[in-house]
Amino acid sequence: MKTATLTILFLAGLCGPSLAQERVEISDDGRAIVWGAPAPSEGGGVLLGSGVPFLAVPDMTLELRRQVGGIKVADMNGDGLNDIVVGCYISNSFPPYEDWHDFILYNDYANEPSDLGAWPTWLADNETHTGDVQVGEVNGLPGLELVTIHGGSVGSSSVRIYSGGPGGPETTASFVSATPQGVWGTSGLLVDLDNDSDLDLVTANQAVSPDPFRPMYQFENEGGVMNPVPVWQSSEQSIQGGLSAADLDDDGFVDVGVSKWVNFESGVYWNNAGTLDVDQGLFVGNTDDERGTVLADFNMDGTPDLAVGGGPTQWYEYSGVSLTSQWVANPPFQSAPQDMVSHDVDGDGDPDLAEIIFSDGRAHIYQNNGGVLDTDPTWTFDASEVGTAIAFGDINGDGLDDLVTGYSGDTCVRVFLAQAPPACPVDLAPPFGSLDFSDVVAFLGAFAAMDPQVDFAEPVGVFDFSDVIVFLAIYAGGCPQGRDRTHGTRSRGLCGAHGGR
After folding, report:
1. Which of 182-191, 262-271, 459-468 shows the lowest mean pLDDT across its residues?
2. Nearest CA-CA partner of 83 in 64, 102, 58
3. What does the alpha-carbon distance between residue 298 and residue 343 come to, in Å, rounded to a whole number?
4. Contact criterion met (CB below 8 Å) for 411 and 397
5. What's the mean pLDDT in 54-67?
6. Alpha-carbon distances of 316 from 110, 284, 344, 376, 412, rounded to whole Å
């Protein structure tokens, strides 16, 4: 499988100027190649009457040519403001990338509210191919640690940990793993596997041809000191992708979900009283190309479900015995995401699903409506770079979680600031604060979908012409401030129109 990728790259070097002049982008795991840039259709839109609070264009961008392998949003220097942590990788892309230091964008939103700055504030001392970044309190001391998952064709295959402190992490790693063989790290997971109140580390791995398969590893945190030698490895050697964790069997210990490449099945490794089984316990039933997992209770039945990023993305319900597919996404193009996360985007208490696609540069959000995910993307941003990473966190300090996306290209980071819910119940689509035809379109879509946010009139739970009349009356009146949705003597808060935030 890897041989094919390397052969393509070799042939590219033989084909002369015609191919050499094209832009070539390669993903951090080497499994995806894009010849030329994605279609220049940057921009997106909000569909239906969604509570997705992001506009169609980013509020801030970092115009810096980098290949982003992973992104996290966290307060790294303890000043009360979330920062943006970025891991960078290196590949045989063309034109070549000249810098791949991991970096942190310290938050200066109060002084520069529309600019991420031209250069990162924190840079790692060494350039090492980073496929993923994790953030957490590893050593038990004040400050968050930065964990980078390394590998690839350049640099060390070791995991590195940068010790945190009051002013931010050190720029030189204090921990370097003693990984027993050369690996190409694809992702990591900081999680307390043994319930001893410290974070352990699980890594997903691969290698290159002629032996591209590697096991998963677990590094154990022993009272604030991460053991550099893995204490566990999976029995299967394969090519793995994204990791996730949740207590799926309700035994008090988190289990680990993992995605795998073709010829291997994604699924779940059971955690038995703090020790992962060496053999995989649950399987999704296919061997498609899959690159991310999320364990979250999408249908709100009290048991986590497993979402797996493929072409297309699906989520599976655990019956107590096996996994059964319950939902399949319907994006405009079928391609496995490079990164995916769950997050309550609209603040209504259920997990929504977000993904970013390498091949076409699109970021998608699938809104969860009371346990039912939208099949078509509720929100899309279509970038002119390939998409690599996605994360959520409050950047501007308004209490609403913003969206951060990472790319490989000249614009490597974009930030979409969450828009505060409108005070108007019929202001259903951005730009919030004004009524226009987009709100009418949003109402019609939401009404057809029987979305509770457009159930304006009694009887509650019935969608009929009375709801249309109430909508038109409020819309025609210009939606004055303080107007509430009223069902006879029953009243819902205005922010209920957009998830209650």
Report:
1. 459-468
2. 102
3. 11
4. no
5. 94
6. 42, 8, 19, 17, 32
